[in-house]
Amino acid sequence: MRSAIAAAGLCVVWSVLAAPALAEDQPGITATEIRIGQTMPYSGPVSAFGILGRGEVAYFKMVNDRGGINGRKVNLLSLDDSYVPPKTVEQTRRLVESDDVSFIFSTMGTAHNTAIAKYLAAKKVPQLFVASGASKFGDPAQFPLALMGVMAPFRNEARMYARYVLQKKADATFAVLAQNDDFGRDYLSGLKDVLGDRFDTAVAAATYEPTEPTIDSQIVKLKATGADALVIAATPKFAAQAIRKSFEINWRPMTFLSNVSVWMSSVMEPAGLDAGTGIISSAYFKDPNDPAWADDSGVKGWRDYMAKYLPDGDIRDSNYVNSYNFSMVLEHVLKAAGNDLSRENIMRQALSIKDLELPMLLPGIKVNTGESDHLPVEQLQFMRFSGKQWERFGEVLSTK
Question: Strand, coil or helix: what is 25?
Fold first, then answer.
C-alpha cells in the first residue's frame, strides 16, 4: 500500500501546509507556550476511553514541571465530545478557531477523527497520533495531515488472528462481533485479506451500534453459526458483555479480543475472570501488572509517574500506558522541531521518526514513520488471558 501512495502522499502533505513563518507568528505558539488540543469521550457510552486524555494531560504536567520543551510549556486543552462525531466537530472547531491551537493531538475514535479530517486539512492543521487503529489513517493520500497513534492498526491485528486460527485448522470458520463503523469493518477487512475467496462462506458477522444497551442477541445469533473462532471487535462495554454472554450460553470457540478492550477493571473483571480464561489478544506495550516486568526500568519509571501525577489512577487500565506512549512520542517530535514550531516543521518531524524505542513498548517494537508511512507501530505479540492476567506467548510479529 505504501509504495503505491508514497508519491501522492508526499505531494499532498506538503501542498496543504503553508510555508514556515516566524515561531511567534504560528498559531498556538508563543515564547512560553505550545498550545495543542484534543477531544475525548469523558462522558457517553465509551467514557472508559477518557482515561487516555486524562493520562495525556497528566504527562504534559510532568513535562512542564521539568521545565517544558525547549523552554516552552505544553498546554493540552482536552474537551469532552461524549463520543458523538458532530460534537467532535463542534469542539474541534472551537479548539482551532477560538482557542487557536497549533495542532490536534490524540483525538479519540475512528468516526470522530474521520469527521474532523477534511476540516483540519482545509485549515492546514496537523492531526497527530490519532487515537484510532483504523488502517485508513495510514493512507497519506486520503488523510495527508493525519498520523496514527502508537498502536497497531485494527486491520493488521485481525490478519494475525486469522493466520493463527488457520494454523490450527485450515478450514476454520469465523464469527465476528463488530461495531458498525470503520472500527469494526477494519477487522472484517483484515480477515478478508487472509481468507481471500473463502471470506464470504467462512465469516459470519453481527454488528452493533455504540448506543445499544446490550449485544446479547448478536452473540446468540453468532453461536448458531457453529463457527470455530469468535473475533470480538468491540469497545470495552460491549466486549465485556460478549465475553459474559458467550460464557453463559456455554459457547467456547477459539476467541480473540480486540486489543483496545483488554482492560482488567472495565472488561475482564465485569465479564467474570473465569469467563475470559483462554481468550487471545495481542500486545505492543508492557503490561505493568506482568511479573516479567517487575524489575524493568521502564515500568518502574511509569509507576513513579503514575504515583506522582495520577495517584488515583487504576494501573490495571492499559490506556494509562497508551497515554504515556502517545505523549512520549509527541514530546520527541516537539523536541526535534526545536524552535521551528511551524505546523509544517512539526508535521515534518512527526514523519521522520526512526527506530524510536519507548520504555513502555515491548522489546523489539520500535516507532517508525515516513512521508509514505503514517503507521508508527506495525508489530504485535500474542497474549492469552489466564483467568488472572494476560500472559504473552510467541515472538513479536510483523502485522503487515
Answer: helix
- Rounded to whole angstroms, how far apart are CA atoms 358 and 262? 21
Query: Across residues 340-345, what is the average pLDDT?
Result: 97
Residue 178's beta-bridge partner residues? 207, 233
Tell me phi and psi for residue 166, to 5 degrees.
Answer: -70, -25
| Contact present, 273 and 282 (Cβ < 8 Å) | no
Contact partners, residue 49, CB within 8 Å, separation at least 6: 40, 41, 83, 108, 109, 131, 235, 236, 319
pLDDT, tens digit (0-9, with 9 covering 90-100), for 109-167: 989 999 999 999 999 999 999 999 998 999 999 999 999 999 989 999 999 999 999 99
**Residues 6 or more apart from 172 whose CB is under 8 A from it?**
165, 166, 202, 228, 229, 254
What pLDDT, on a 0 to 100 scale, did the predictor assign at position 152?
A: 86
Is the CB of residue 186 less than 8 Å from the CB of residue 151? no
State how far the Cα of 158 lies from the Cα of 178, in Å rounded to an integer: 12
% pLDDT > 70, the chain: 94
Percent helix / strand / coil, the chain, rounded to 5: 45, 20, 35
**Cell match 456455554: residue?**
250
Q: How far apart are CA 362 and CA 380, in angstroms?
A: 9
Prediction pTM value: 0.84
Report the relative pairing of strands 73-80 and 104-105 from DSSP bridges.
Answer: unpaired
